[in-house]
Amino acid sequence: MTFARRDDLLGDLFRTPLDPGYAQAAARRREGTPPPRWGPAARAVTLAAVGFLLAVAYHQVVAEAPSASRARDDLVADVRSRQRTAEDLQRQVDVLRTQVDEARDNALADASGAATLRGLAAGAGTAKVTGDGVVVRVVDAPPQVDPVTGHTAEENLGIVLDRDLQDVANGLWQAGAEAIAVNGQRLTATSTIRAAGGVILVDFKPVTGPYDVAAIGSPDIADRFSSSTTARRFRRYVDNYRMQFTVKTRKGLVLAAAPEPPLRYAHPPAPSVSPSPTGGHR
Q: In this entry, which stretches build a coiled coil (predicted)?
């Protein structure tokens, strides 16, 4: 039955390829019958119905606009309030961290031990460091504009990507960097630079251009990085895609400490119970 119905449909399609409405209109033209026309009353009713629907839609949009605007304003205010709270908490963390460091140094009787501990913390990224170094700035290329039409090109090959910042950071490590920060976000051994939804995240915190990768290290770190393969590749980006790339030596750089890593707890194994002596008599 299914194949029969399918054959009937195909047969009807080939027998009557013209839509019935078109066929009726063609027949009226051959007979000289004018097509049906709406009268003034029908047109007036139609226009009135369309106008009523437009008025209802307009009033609904106008009525919902204030509530949508209030919801957006409330959301923006909530985000800003939470940002201020996070900044206040971060300042408290910095103060408490300084107090903890001072108490730790005072508690250590050996000065060399305190210095060693500070060096390890600086290398791990959990302590603020100060020194001379270099700042590598990478900026998105301006969008291309057609000189004839004035339209902006949809694709911009000079946009800074997360892997570009990764390459700059790795190149600075290879050039002798001892501490690196991206837009103030200190890098550690477990840091990540990745993209999410078109935004670059450094340790899950968004950073925006211009991107400044600051590094403290050896006195010749700027020269070593400038002559590296990474710097040469970015100069090609400047020539081909109009990306902005600069390397500048800086004195007295201050790189803030990274947040404390999450603590992991370890439980010692239960002590093994040795069998007690039998205490038998001879």
A: 79-106
